[in-house]
Structure formats: C-alpha cells, structure tokens
Amino acid sequence: QVQLVESGGGLVQPGGSLRLSCAGSRIRFGMYNMAWYRQAPGKEREVVAGITPGGATSYADSVKGRFAISRDNVKNTMYLQMNSLRPEDTAVYYCNIWGAPSDDGSWGQGTQVTVSS
Questions:
Q1: Which of 21, 23, 28, 44 is 20 to 30 A distant from 78 in Cα terms?
Q2: Strand order in 46-51's β-sheet?
Q3: 3-class secondary structure per residue, the chain
Q4: Is residue 26 a contact partner of residue 8, using CB atoms and an 8 Å limit?
Q5: Is 78:36 a contact under the CB 8 Å cutoff?
Q6: Are 22 and 79 in contact (CB under 8 A)?
C-alpha cells in the first residue's frame, strides 16, 4: 500500500513562511507527475502546485509568486516552500500524484497550516 506522510505545518503570522515536506513509501516519485493539494474547512480539496518528473512546475493562480514546489526523486521526497502566507492559505495540505482519486487509499493525514495574527 502506498504511504504518504506530510510534515512541516504549523501556526504562522500573515507574511510568514513555512516549508512542507512529503515522504513517500511503496511509490517511486520519479515515475509520476506529483502535486500538493489543500482543503480548507467546508471546501473541496484543490490542487495548489504540480511538478513533472523532470521538474517542470505549475501553480494555482492564488499561490503564484508565493509558493515553490520541488522534488528529490532519489530521496522520494517532495517539498512546498510557502512564502508571504495569507489567512486564506489556512488549510490541511496533502501530497499525492497528480489526479489521484479522492477516495484512493494513498492519501495521508495531511499537515495543518494556520495563518493568523
């Protein structure tokens, strides 16, 4: 069974920064387009950023210029650098392959990011 573990979340003031990490097991990150997702209370899970095996990236309009996704295929690890954080960034953040079904058993517990004064 694929296992994904997110870490690095926490409480931060507006304008602050966080770096999230995603560690995978029983999955070769280098074979897939990967993505960071987030889910705010009462909202659907949405894609925040995506990255190809070769490192090409894409971002949701809401985070362009503020977030940066990266990956280390050898370490089977993915990262999300989050700068200039805003209260509307508050959500549980998840990692998975791009397009992972919402009911797939690979989804981890996520890591909580709270942006508040």
A1: 44
A2: 10-12, 111-115, 91-97, 34-39, 46-51, 57-59
A3: CCEEEEECCEEECCCCCEEEEEEEECCCHHHCCEEEEEECCCCCCEEEEEECCCCCEEECCCCCCCEEEEEECCCCEEEEEECCCCHHHCEEEEEEECCCCCCCCCCCCCEEEEECC
A4: no
A5: yes
A6: yes
Q: How many residues does the chain have?
A: 117
For residue 5, which amino acid is it?
V
CA angle 21-27-33, nearest 5°?
Answer: 70
Q: Could you report the average pLDDT of every consecutive run of 10 residues in the chain (117 residues)?
A: 95 98 92 96 96 96 98 94 98 96 93 97
Which residue is listed with tokens 């940066």?
A: 68
